[in-house]
Design goal:
heterodimer, A: six-stranded mixed sheet, globular, B: 435 residues, eight-stranded mixed sheet
């Protein structure tokens, strides 16, 4: 029996990734999509255009494209094709979120706990999302490393979800969450925004010494290397620019603080998340070339977001800040196209500006704009097709392609899209969201605290 | 450092100003909205029409309406007038900052607090109110929420300086029907535990209602002089109008089996005619039963995930349409507080996923007005109704649409909120970057 099991494991491990796709193992990744209105984002709108997809990449965009005989075709007459949506902030498809045991936990990463069975991956696909930046939670000043994944729902090996070659990123968090968890919860620094700054500065100084000791050892100035520290290795990589900081933040003062700290340590390529008061320091964000990844309109759920405005995206964009709109929620990620449209209601952004908020801008912030975020020849064929302009409230996603493979098709998908059913739970869980509403985000999961619209509660 | 200092000073100086200057007063008078498209909702849409507002009332509307001499004329060429939108379930005005308990006034301690009155705790000066109404929402149900019988919910107009000025006549008791659903990822009770707790809660509800009925009988007997008054119990006193069939009972239930049980319970207690279901996220599963009972439903939030992992991804969007198809009378609720402003978008998603635009508009105007018994005053553009209305440059559910004018109880209100004021100040901040 054991031998049989081992054999089975061996077969599973040896099989190519495609064979481990429960839904689309033999699906084509060559396509000719015809007669669509193509919203390229980076190169205007093309009416009645075709898109040729070969080997999962965009091979051509234009009118009356010729394609190899026998290629799968999709008649998109009257429909709109946009780049697959990139969600720059999510906590889906991971089995834990926070390592809330210390203010600095750079050594951990959510890439180790990817869960390809999470049906939230599919539900986001049904809203046109093809890439998600799956993040560690916001309990720690310097949290864990994040993972950029593609919504290849159907694959069952965690590795098959990763966006190969995406830059490494790490979560930082300022303000109420880390001060509540560590200062108030455990009586360790930080309890204040002063403490938050010093946690970062102290950690960076230690990493500089760690790097100097490593260099000294390499140069023969030291007999032994410094004791190995996974944590310090990651921090050192931040200082070297190899790990991009993605920082949870709300208030203008803390945003400004971190820009000053980064300037002192030569860290240049980073993005603030949530950043509800980013609009107050928009000129400074632009001057530092810092990204801002925001909610469309979430506010007032805690004090540090009370002085917010839904015009944040418009103010940031018009001040030249690379801005994205993210979900941080398995509800909002299903209609990010609608969240982007709100930036037209609040501040009158153009169609292209609004679409950029959920495509090319988040791709730039994550360092993956060479792969995704626009419809350009050579990029991954990650495409979302809608029956109307996706910025219309009445738009319904029809098809979503990831690497040229149809992963969502409104015409041909069954209701129940779970990949795995727990046989020990005969009674299926039914959630009642009518009271907690849509804010069942999980950025504080694992901290013992959870936020509902009734307030913060201890689990 | 200098920059930081300047910045902090700016913050200090602007914050209190911002808080104290939330509203420019509105004004009543005589207004004539001319050359307008009038979407009356209850009768045909009128093109090139005029609508006259006098004090708090719609005084006239139509194509052959004379503009009164004293009227302030607002040319609405290219614009459309809609009745104010109604949200059928919110905590608006009852909470300011979600995570801060000192600003939360919708959740009194105890399971049995029917004598709590949400209207009492409505803060007319909540920063959230202008933020909401500038999107065309003029009236909402403010409801208490904790415990079995949390208290009375009240309909309020989103303008006024005292709760009474805001009150739009409807008051109804809320019953959180014992739930067998989970509240979120943190709710990790076993199915058996959930079942057990719900059973206990239903037993408790049954006992409470026995008491309430007994209390009402004793009270009636006392009024007829047959015996002395019952020992005063505030929550029982508050339930008298419900037990006597004089007041609505809003039953919150979402899981299919809970809805079914709630309908059975209401029938057994003779309450069916007074019951309004709220939430009803799995309403589509038992739509026929709801329709058969003739119970109206306040459905939503529409922008929500399905209740079960096995459900089709769009079930929450499709729920209103499926309920309507079964013949259920429905209105839409957001269940929100600071983002009740998204009501038109909840309606838009419901429209796209099966309800249709006309029915979706009704579900946030005349339908709730009828369900709550306030259709003589609001919910459509009709002569004699209260002037709760707004003017847009397009479809009120589309995000590109902008509200151009807003009237609540005839008050022409400025289209200002904290959000617009921060935009005005910070779009082109001065000073900008200083090195």
């Amino acid at each position: 029996m054991t031998r049989l099991l081992l054999l089975l494991l061996f077969v599973l491990a040896a099989a190519p990734a495609q064979a481990q796709d429960l839904l689309r193992a033999n699906a084509p990744n060559d396509w000719l999509i015809t007669n669509a209105t193509v919203l390229t984002v980076t190169n205007g709108v093309q009416e009645s255009a075709d898109i040729l997809v070969q080997d999962g990449k965009i091979a051509a965009v234009g009118s009356n494209l010729s394609a190899p005989e026998g290629i799968a075709t999709y008649d998109a007459s009257g429909q709109y094709v946009m780049p697959g949506i990139v969600d720059a902030h999510s906590h889906i498809a991971i089995s834990s979120v926070n390592e809330a045991t210390a203010p600095v936990t750079a050594q951990v990463g959510v890439g180790d706990v990817l869960d390809p069975f999470d049906v939230a991956l599919y539900r986001a696909l049904a809203g046109g999302v093809t890439t998600s930046h799956v993040m560690h939670g916001s309990a720690n000043v310097i949290g864990g490393q994040n993972e950029t994944i593609k919504h290849r729902y159907g694959v069952i090996t965690p590795d098959a979800l990763r966006l190969e070659g995406a830059p490494r990123t790490i979560k930082f968090a300022l303000g109420e969450n880390p001060t509540r968890v560590h200062g108030e919860g455990n009586e360790v620094v930080p309890q204040t925004r002063m403490g938050v700054e010093q946690v970062i500065r102290t950690t960076f100084h230690k990493a500089q010494r760690y790097m100097a000791a490593q260099a000294a050892y390499r140069n023969g100035e030291r007999d032994a290397p410094p004791p190995h520290s996974e944590r310090m290795d990651v921090i050192a990589d931040i200082l070297r620019g190899e790990v991009l900081v993605q920082c949870h933040s709300y208030r203008a003062d803390e945003i400004y603080m971190l820009m000053e700290v980064f300037e002192d340590f030569g860290v240049t390529n980073y993005t603030f998340h949530h950043v509800n008061e980013g609009f107050k320091v928009a000129p400074e964000l632009a001057a530092h070339n810092a990204g801002a990844s925001i909610f469309s309109d979430w506010w007032a759920y805690k004090f540090e977001v009370y002085y917010s405005t839904a015009y944040n995206a418009a103010i940031l964009t018009k001040n030249g800040v690379t801005t994205s709109i993210n979900s941080d929620s398995p509800e909002l990620n299903r209609h990010l196209y609608h969240e982007a449209a709100k930036a037209q209601h609040y501040g009158g952004l153009s169609d292209t500006q609004a679409l950029s908020l959920i495509t090319i801008n988040p791709a730039r912030q994550l360092g993956i704009a060479d792969r995704v975020g626009s419809i350009e020849v050579g990029k991954d064929a990650d495409l979302a097709i809608f029956n109307r302009h996706p910025l219309s409230i009445y738009a319904i996603a029809q098809r979503t392609y990831v690497d040229g493979v149809v992963r969502f098709d409104r015409q041909n998908d069954p209701d129940d899209m779970r990949l795995r059913v727990n046989p020990e739970r005969p009674v299926e869980t039914a959630y009642d969201w009518s009271d907690t509403g849509k804010r069942h985000g999980s950025c504080m999961q694992g901290t013992g605290l959870h936020a509902t619209q009734r307030g913060l509660y201890l689990k | 450092m200098r920059l930081l200092l300047t910045f902090c000073l700016t913050l200090l100086l602007t914050a209190p100003l911002d808080a104290s200057a939330q509203k420019t007063p509105g004004r009543q008078g005589t207004f004539a909205l001319t050359n307008a498209r009038l979407v009356t909702v209850t009768s045909d849409t009128i093109s090139g029409g005029t609508l006259v507002i006098r004090a708090d009332t719609i005084a006239a509307l139509g194509t052959n309406v004379a503009v009164p001499d004293d009227a302030e004329v607002i040319d609405c060429t290219g614009l459309t007038v809609y009745p104010g939108l109604i949200d059928s379930g919110t905590r608006l005005g009852l909470v300011e900052v979600g995570s801060l308990s000192e600003t939360r006034d919708y959740n009194e301690i105890g399971d049995l607090t029917a004598h709590m009155d949400a209207l009492t705790a409505v803060n007319p000066n909540s920063v959230n109110i202008p933020v909401t109404r500038v999107n065309g929402i003029t009236t909402v149900l403010a409801e208490p929420s904790n415990g079995l019988l949390p208290g009375a919910a009240s309909m309020i107009d989103l303008h006024g300086y005292t709760p009474d000025q805001m009150h739009r006549s409807f008051t109804g008791q809320v019953l959180n029907f014992p739930s067998t659903g989970r509240r979120g990822w943190w709710d990790d009770r076993s199915p058996e535990e959930i079942e057990k707790q719900a059973k206990k809660a239903i037993k408790k509800l049954s006992d409470v209602w026995d008491r309430a009925e007994l209390y009402a009988r004793i009270d009636s007997a006392a009024a007829a002089g047959d015996r002395r008054a019952p020992t005063y119990v505030p929550s029982m006193e508050a339930l008298l109008p419900v037990v006597r069939g004089e007041q609505a009972l809003i039953i919150k239930a979402s899981k299919a089996s809970d809805i079914t049980k709630a309908l059975e319970w209401a029938a057994a207690r003779g309450l069916t005619d007074q019951v309004i279901l709220s939430g009803a996220q799995e309403g589509w599963r038992v739509a026929d039963a709801i329709a058969a009972a003739g119970v109206p439903v306040l459905v939503g939030p529409v922008l929500s995930v399905p209740t079960r992992p096995s459900d089709r991804y769009d079930k929450a969007y499709a729920n209103p349409g499926l309920l309507a198809e079964a013949g259920v009378q429905l209105a839409i609720r957001t269940g929100g507080a600071e983002n009740v402003r998204n009501l038109p978008y909840n309606a838009g998603f419901a429209a796209a996923y099966g309800l249709g635009k006309a029915a979706a508009l009704k579900a946030v105007t005349i339908a709730p007005a009828r369900i709550f018994g306030i259709a003589d005053a609001v919910g459509s553009l009709e002569v004699g109704k209260v002037a709760n209305l707004f003017v847009t440059n397009g479809d009120p559910f589309e995000t590109t649409t902008q509200v151009q004018h807003l009237f609540i109880e005839g008050y022409k209100l400025p289209l200002e909120s904290r959000h617009t004021k921060l935009y005005d100040e910070f779009l082109n901040r001065n000073p900008g970057v200083t090195e």
